[in-house]
Amino acid sequence: MKLKAQTPKILQLAALATALLTLTAFHPGAHDTERSASTNPITDRPPATTAVGTVEAFHSALVRGDTQAALALLADDVLIFESGGVERSKAEYASHHLHADAEFSMAVKRTLESRSTVGSEMFAWVTSVEKVTGTFRNSTINSRSIETMLLTKSAAGWQISHIHWSSAKTLKKFR
Questions:
Q1: CA separation (Å) from 4 to 1, 7, 92, 150?
Q2: Is pLDDT at 12 greater than 70 in this prediction?
Q3: How crowded is residue 103: how many other Cβ atoms within 10 Å of its Cβ?
Q4: Higher pLDDT, residue 21 or 9
Q5: Is 109 exposed, middle or buried (0-12, 13-18, 19+ CB in 10 A)?
Q6: What per-residue string of b and e applies to 125-156 under the rule 16 or more CB within 10 Å gives b?
Q7: What span, in angstroms and rounded, lies between the C-alpha atoms of 122 and 44?
């Protein structure tokens, strides 16, 4: 049964997420309300030798339509949650949503609103909030995207082990 095979991985990710959430809550800057945002989300990239750099390199690859570069940053057993669905491996993601995600990323503008990072030498948790605008498949996009990525470090460098994406339409404010 596929669920039983995934249970240890899910439990490991849940334990990692719980540990990182606890660290986030007690981090001295965890409750700061002001966050810096990149002024140019494509060129203001940290090197991919860091967890944040790996997240940025993944998005940059999608924006360029370079799906092979994006896949290279994912662990083979990556677990991806998106819009109520789940993909349980790099191969499954490559055969399902990867190309649509790249197409979407090429069509819209993402503006980073905030980012938090917690981690150690071997594990990291990167959460990002972005405003996403543009036109995709003849639909106007004006949304807020929330992303959580869990990363693990090996001799090969940082790899994305889990992604959770959610988004909602941005409502117009009335005065």
A1: 6, 5, 18, 21
A2: no
A3: 15
A4: 9
A5: middle
A6: bbbbbbebebeeeeeebeeebebbbbbbbeee
A7: 24
The three-point CA angle 165-171-172 to 5° equals 145
Nearest alpha-carbon partner for 66 in 96, 38, 101, 91: 101
Strand order in the sheet with 108-119: 85-87, 74-82, 157-169, 139-154, 123-136, 108-119
Cβ(75)–Cβ(159) below 8 Å: yes
**pLDDT tens-digit series, residues 82-130:** 989 999 999 999 999 999 999 999 999 999 999 999 999 999 999 999 9
Q: What is the pLDDT of residues 40-72, one digit of tens each?
A: 344 444 457 999 999 999 999 999 999 999 999
Alpha helices in the chain (DSSP H): 2-26, 51-64, 67-72, 90-95, 98-107
Domains, the chain, in order of start with CATH, read 2-22+40-169 (3.10.450.50)
